[in-house]
Amino acid sequence: MVDIVTFNQLSADEQSEFRRFSKQFIKAVRLSGVSDGFEFQEQYAIKRDGEYYFLSKGSDVFANIKSRSRRVIETLLSEAVQNHGR
């Protein structure tokens, strides 16, 4: 799980959405072929399509995860950086 300070900065609705996406996101990060979270962060950027934010490498939406909250996507990215490959 992402660090508690980052998680607590989310609203209750954002925390709920983060929890809903977290397991799917971590599984997709592990299957993405990157060696660690820093490499993931270098390859995937936060993008916006209308009212939704998502991570993308090119034009594909990573793991089919979109959110109206940029902070949810930023927190998922923090999760990858802090915990993937450790």
Continuous helix count: 4
Distance between the termini: 13 Å
The biggest sheet amounts to:
3 strands, antiparallel
The fraction of residues assigned to DSSP E strands is: 15-25%
Model regions low in confidence, pLDDT < 50 over at least 5 residues: none
- State the oligomer: single chain
Question: Which whole number gives the mean pLDDT?
Answer: 95
**Helical residue percent?**
40-55%
Shape descriptor reads globular
Succession of helices and strands: HHHEEEH
Radius of gyration: 12 Å
Number of strands: 3
Strand order of the largest sheet: 1-2-3
Which class best fits the helix and strand makeup? alpha+beta
Short description:
The chain is α+β, with helices and mostly antiparallel strands and 86 residues long. The protein has four helices and three strands.
Description:
The protein has 86 residues and is α+β, with helices and mostly antiparallel strands. The chain is 53% helix and 15% strand. The protein is built from 4 helices and 3 strands; from the N terminus they run αααβββα. It has helices at residues 4-8, 12-31, 37-43, 70-83; strands at 45-49, 52-57, 60-61. A 3-stranded antiparallel β-sheet has the order 1-2-3. A hairpin with a 2-residue loop joins β1 and β2 (52-57). α2 packs across α4 (70-83). The longest helix has 20 residues, at 12-31. The two termini are 13 Å apart. The mean pLDDT is 95.
